[in-house]
C-alpha cells in the first residue's frame, strides 16, 4: 500500500494502519507524497524500518522521482539492503512532443538508458519509469478534497491514519461490489 495515502504523518503512526487496512507492504514515496523516502535517509534505514518490523509490514516499492532514471545507483543499493528489487522513478524529458520529434526523443532516451539498465541488472533491480500527463497538480499540491476523489468511494477525508484506513476499507468494499456485478 502506498504510504502517501496517509499524508505526511510519522511512520510510527501510519504503519499500524497499513496493517489494519489489510496490506503487508508499505510503498515509500518522496516529498509531496508523504516524504517518507527522505525521512528514511534522515532517520537512518535501521531506525526507519523499526516500526515496519514491529507491525509486520514489509518495505514495498521505493519511489524516487527527483533523481530521474539516470542517477539511481544509490537507490539500487538501498533497495538491495531491504531485499527489494523495484524502484519507481521519474522519466524526465521534454513534454508535448509528437510525431517524428517524439520518435527521436524516445530513441535517444532508450540509448541513454542502456548503461543504467545494465547497472540495475547487476544490482538485481527493476526500474519502472513514472510518466504522467501534466495536470493541474504538477505545479501545486492537491487539496484534501481533490486527493479524496482519487479513491474509489467517498466521504470527507481528514488524513488521520484511522480515517484513511476507513476510507481504504470502504474503497475495497466498493471495488469488491463492482467486481461481483461483472
Write a structural description.
The protein is α/β, with parallel strands linked by helices. It has a single domain (3-142), classed as Divalent-metal-dependent TIM barrel enzymes (TIM Barrel). It is built from seven helices and four strands. It has helices at residues 11-20, 36-43, 45-54, 73-81, 99-123, 144-148, 161-180; strands spanning 25-28, 58-64, 86-90, 126-130. The chain has a four-stranded parallel beta sheet with strand order 1-2-3-4. α4 (73-81) links the parallel β2 (58-64) and β3. α1 (11-20) packs parallel to α7 (161-180), α2 crosses α3 and α4 (73-81) packs across α5. The longest helix has 25 residues, at 99-123. The chain is globular. Mean pLDDT is 80; it is low at 133-138.
Q: What's the topology here?
A:
Blueprint: H1 11-20, E1 25-28, H2 36-43, H3 45-54, E2 58-64, H4 73-81, E3 86-90, H5 99-123, E4 126-130, H6 144-148, H7 161-180
Parallel strand pairs: 1-2, 2-3, 3-4
Amino acid at each position: 500500500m502506498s504510504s502517501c495515502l496517509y499524508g505526511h504523518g510519522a511512520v510510527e503512526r501510519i504503519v499500524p494502519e497499513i496493517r489494519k487496512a489489510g496490506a503487508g507492504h508499505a510503498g515509500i514515496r518522496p516529498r509531496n507524497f508523504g516524504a517518507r523516502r527522505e525521512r528514511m535517509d534522515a532517520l537512518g534505514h535501521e531506525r526507519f524500518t523499526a516500526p515496519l518490523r514491529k507491525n509486520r509490514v514489509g518495505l514495498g516499492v521505493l519511489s524516487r522521482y527527483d533523481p530521474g532514471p539516470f542517477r539511481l545507483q544509490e537507490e539500487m543499493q538501498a533497495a538491495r539492503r531491504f531485499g527489494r528489487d523495484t524502484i519507481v522513478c521519474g522519466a524526465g524529458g521534454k513534454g508535448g512532443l509528437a510525431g517524428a520529434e517524439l520518435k527521436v526523443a524516445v530513441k535517444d532516451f532508450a540509448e541513454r538508458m542502456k548503461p543504467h539498465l545494465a547497472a540495475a541488472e547487476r544490482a538485481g533491480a527493476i526500474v519502472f519509469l513514472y510518466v504522467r500527463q501534466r495536470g493541474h497538480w504538477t505545479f501545486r499540491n492537491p487539496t484534501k478534497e481533490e486527493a479524496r476523489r482519487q479513491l474509489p468511494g467517498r466521504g470527507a477525508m481528514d488524513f488521520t491514519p484511522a480515517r484513511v484506513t476507513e476510507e481504504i476499507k470502504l474503497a475495497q468494499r466498493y471495488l469488491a461490489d463492482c467486481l461481483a456485478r461483472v
